[in-house]
Structures are given as structure tokens and as C-alpha cells.
Specification:
Radius of gyration: 30 Å
Order of helices and strands: HHHHHHHHH
Oligomer: single chain
Distance between the termini: 105 Å
Helix content: 55-70%
Number of strands: 0
Largest sheet: none
Structural class: mainly alpha
């Protein structure tokens, strides 16, 4: 009973915060609403005994990605009036995409994968069961090729982002260790023969 109440409370909070992401006028408030959406989704995953996914959602998205989003949004000078014009212009397309996604989710949820056989109950897991260990076993055995492909794609994205943002500045001074090692004493030190005070 208590799990059902927790699920509905956080499910409503997830839907409300997700709607606020696309409806609020301030981009910073939209980003904070997305953070709240991630937190409430993580709580729902905890109630479904998916602790690894919940912790990953909080650590990766809330702890890293959303912090980056907040900094970028706060540093950019965003024209809110122009954003509103684009929102109204692309509203029909957005509604069409939303309807398609809703139909896809309904087709997945109502499929035979999520339907238990008549009279069957969910299999209870032992006390020492670890879904993180089970997920890792499946990920690195059956889906290891897809996992490696995803890693390569992320590596390419990182290299592309670095190469796009790296610009050579002519005014910046750089050190060259190879040139520093080639320096001779005569290039840096000049001995001048000057008369001493006694000779004068």
C-alpha cells in the first residue's frame, strides 16, 4: 500500500516537472525542473528495485550533465522573446512527435513482454540478490558488442567536441620542451669583460 502511494506521488511530480521543462519561460527554471524530473524518476526506479539505474541517473545526469546545462544556460544570453516565437511556430510539430511517442510507449507497455500469464505471480528474488551484478553480467556477455560500439561512439563525440572547440590563438605563448633542451649556454649567457674597481 505504501509503495503504491509513493509511486503515484512521485509519478505525478515527474509528469508536472516534465511539463514545466517545456512550458516555463525562464531557461534556468526549465533546467531546474529537469533536475527535479530526474530525481523523481530515480525514486520511481528505486521502488521498482532498480537501484543501479536510479543511482546512475542521479550521479550521471543530475551530478554531471545537468550541472553543465545549468552553467551553459546561465552563461548564455538567451533571447526569451525569440524562444517564444519558435515555441509557437513548432508547436504542431511538437504535438505530432508527442503523440507518436505516446503511441509507441503504449504499444510497448501493452505488449506481451509486460503481461504476466494468468494466475502467475512475479518471482521473488533472494535476499542477497544484486540487480547490479545481474545487469553487469548481461551487459558484458550478451550485449558486449553493442556496449563497445556505444563506447566508440562516445569517444568519437569527445574527440569531435575537443577538435571543434580547440582554436589556435596567435597571441598565446607556449612552451616547447624540445627547444628548451636544445638551448646552449652561449645562447642564454654572455660574459662581459669589465674592469674591476681596483684596476680603475
Amino acid at each position: 500500500m505504501i509503495e503504491t502511494i509513493i509511486f503515484y506521488v512521485f509519478a505525478v511530480a515527474t509528469v508536472v516537472s516534465a511539463c514545466a521543462v517545456v512550458t516555463v519561460k525562464n531557461p534556468v527554471h526549465a533546467t531546474l525542473s529537469l533536475v527535479l524530473t530526474f530525481f523523481t524518476s530515480a525514486v520511481i526506479w528505486m521502488t521498482l528495485e532498480a537501484e543501479f539505474l536510479a543511482i546512475s541517473l542521479v550521479l550521471v545526469y543530475v551530478g554531471a550533465v545537468m550541472v553543465l546545462f545549468i552553467f551553459v544556460v546561465m552563461m548564455l544570453d538567451i533571447n526569451v522573446a525569440r524562444l517564444r516565437e519558435g515555441f509557437v511556430r513548432y508547436l504542431p510539430l511538437g504535438l505530432a512527435v508527442a503523440v507518436i511517442m505516446l503511441l509507441l510507449m503504449l504499444s510497448v507497455v501493452t505488449s506481451d513482454i509486460f503481461v504476466l500469464e494468468a494466475g502467475s505471480e512475479p518471482v521473488a528474488k533472494p535476499a542477497d540478490y544484486s540487480n547490479t551484478k545481474a545487469l553487469g553480467g548481461v551487459l558484458y556477455t550478451e550485449y558486449v558488442f553493442a556496449f563497445e560500439i556505444a563506447a566508440v561512439i562516445l569517444l568519437v563525440a569527445i574527440i569531435a567536441a575537443i577538435s571543434l572547440t580547440m582554436r589556435k590563438r596567435t597571441q598565446t605563448k607556449y612552451q616547447s620542451p624540445s627547444d628548451q633542451m636544445k638551448v646552449r649556454k652561449s645562447d642564454r649567457l654572455r660574459i662581459v669583460d669589465m674592469p674591476s674597481s681596483e684596476e680603475q
